[in-house]
């Protein structure tokens, strides 16, 4: 397999696997946005990023116009993240009677997934690995840490990942 094809396949597969891992996390928390959706978000972001890089490399003398390449890449990233922001906004729900806002973590995960697709598409592997480790730790341990802090301090809003605040005299079921 030629090196360029191997590189492209690696970037696309890495983005898809990372998106699917984030989707699994959301599936395990009972959210509608899951493995397929986030796998596709990451894959699509990587495809557009790689496609743009390859097209510019083949059809324009990018080396002699670095400012033009920079503007194109800025527009690409801005376009992906803005569009994905609308998908993320679609998973945020405000329940009027209780004034609860649900879906914020899922919306942030959708945006993160698109970002990871872009970074995989750019082939920035140190950034990919670092972001996967940090975001994975946050997704796995962030909710329990937040619950622990709120229980100890007796403060703070509850979101969909934390569940309803226990009534006086009750304890969270997970403690």
UniProtKB/TrEMBL annotation:
InterPro entries: MgtC/SapB/SrpB/YhiD_fam (IPR003416), MgtC_SapB_SrpB_YhiD_N (IPR049177). GO terms for cellular component: plasma membrane. The chain crosses the membrane at residues 6-25, 37-56, 76-94, 125-145. The keyword Cell inner membrane applies. Residues 156-175 are annotated as: Disordered. Signal peptide: none annotated. Residues 158-175 have a biased composition (Basic and acidic residues). Its main location: membrane. Keywords: Cell inner membrane, Cell membrane, Membrane, Transmembrane, Transmembrane helix. It is a multi-pass membrane protein. It is found in: Cell inner membrane; Cell membrane. Belongs to the MgtC/SapB family. PANTHER family: MAGNESIUM TRANSPORTER YHID-RELATED, PROTEIN MGTC. This is Protein MgtC. It comes from Segnochrobactrum spirostomi. The lineage of its organism: Bacteria, Pseudomonadati, Pseudomonadota, Alphaproteobacteria, Hyphomicrobiales.
